[in-house]
Amino acid sequence: MKSKGNKSILTPSLKQALGKMINDKIKIAIVDDSLAIRERLQQKIEKNNDFEIIWTAEKLSGAMEEYLKEAPEIMILDIQLQDSSGFKVLENIRKINSDTKIIMLTNFPYATFKNKCMNLGGNYFFDKTNEFEKVFEVLKNFKNEKLN
What we know:
Layout: H1 12-23, E1 26-31, H2 35-45, E2 51-57, H3 60-69, E3 74-77, H4 86-96, E4 101-106, H5 111-119, E5 124-127, H6 134-147
């Protein structure tokens, strides 16, 4: 950005902040017992340079271990896991961090499960069969909110 006389109106600190915003990818984690779903999500998300999958997990134990190492901004979470449930992951995460956005993506789109998800602090609840693409709408909206 230039003003009259070819002098930049951006201060060094503003340039640094803008550079950080442009270069910072939104960190996402995927927790699902299905390798096919994890891979499908990862492939589609990583087509967008604004996002980075920082880790994936198929179990409660792996999810919590990874979360404590590096908390994502967004977590895509299944209800059914190999060793527990996504509800337990959600409950544990909310005990330590309320900022991570949680997208519950499930094959069990029942109202009781949706209510439980929301009561535990989930942000979104989608049916894998009929609402899979909504995950990507949420990611796009999150990116736009972050830029504004």
